[in-house]
């Protein structure tokens, strides 16, 4: 960037514009703005960009969560259809006639397809919003039981140490 544009760049920087905004305003490549800023000792406040990125990531997480909820609802609807009556129809033949039959439930093949679609919706929802991991498990239970046993033993020992006729 030529020196005659440095004052313009300094003024835009002083207004709080970021590197890309200055580049757009001046019609100069962002890399040239970065090089010139370094030469002039100017830095860009990245806190606004970091805050915007954090907000964007939070928005995306919320959208994934909502989509996961929708997929679970879809899976529930598909699963319910496995056992609902189903109308089968046929149009055609040499006389081009219409036939239909109401079945008590879908055919085994249709049930399999519905369950497969429901399973796929559940899998996708779990990828979008994995369930929270339960921490601890058996080790935490053992630790808790050990502490409980120690507490009971301490109470028993305390009762044994009391003089006859004393209350705890």
- How much helical structure, as a percent, in the residues? 55-70%
How many H/I helices? Answer: 6
Q: What's the overall average pLDDT, rounded?
A: 87
Q: Ends: how far apart? A: 86 Å
Number of strands: 2
Output the structural class.
mainly alpha
Strand content: 5-15%
Order of helices and strands: HHHHEEHH
Reported for the largest beta sheet, the result is: 2 strands, antiparallel
Low-confidence stretches: none
Characterize the overall form: flat
- Whole-angstrom Rg: 35 Å
- Placed side by side, the strands forming the largest sheet appear as 1-2
Please, could you describe this protein's structure?
This protein has 168 residues and is mostly helical. Among the domains are: 3-45; 56-128, no CATH class. Helices cover 64% and strands 8% of the residues. The protein contains six helices and two strands. A two-stranded antiparallel ribbon has the order 1-2. Helix 2 packs across helix 3 and helix 4 (47-81) packs antiparallel against helix 5. The mean pLDDT is 87.
Question: What does the secondary structure layout of this molecule look like, with pairings?
Answer:
Blueprint: H1 6-14, H2 19-26, H3 30-40, H4 47-81, E1 86-92, E2 97-103, H5 108-128, H6 138-161
Antiparallel strand pairs: 1-2
Helix pairs in contact: 2-3, 4-5
List key phrases describing it.
mainly alpha
């Amino acid at each position: 960037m030529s020196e005659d544009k440095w004052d313009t760049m300094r003024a835009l920087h002083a207004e709080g514009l970021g590197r890309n905004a200055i580049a757009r305003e001046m019609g100069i490549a962002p890399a040239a703005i970065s090089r010139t800023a370094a030469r002039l000792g100017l830095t860009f406040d990245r806190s606004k960009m970091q805050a915007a990125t954090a907000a964007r990531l939070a928005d995306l997480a919320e959208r994934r969560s909502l989509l996961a909820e929708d997929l679970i609802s879809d899976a529930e609807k598909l699963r319910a259809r496995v056992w609902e009556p189903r109308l089968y129809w046929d149009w055609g033949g040499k006389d081009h006639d219409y036939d239909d039959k109401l079945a008590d439930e879908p055919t085994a093949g249709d049930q399999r397809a519905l369950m497969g679609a429901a399973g796929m919706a559940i899998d996708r929802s779990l990828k979008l919003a994995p369930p929270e991991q339960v921490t601890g498990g058996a080790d935490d239970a053992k630790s808790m039981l050990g502490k409980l046993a120690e507490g009971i033993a301490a109470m028993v020992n305390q009762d044994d140490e009391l003089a006859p006729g004393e209350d705890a």
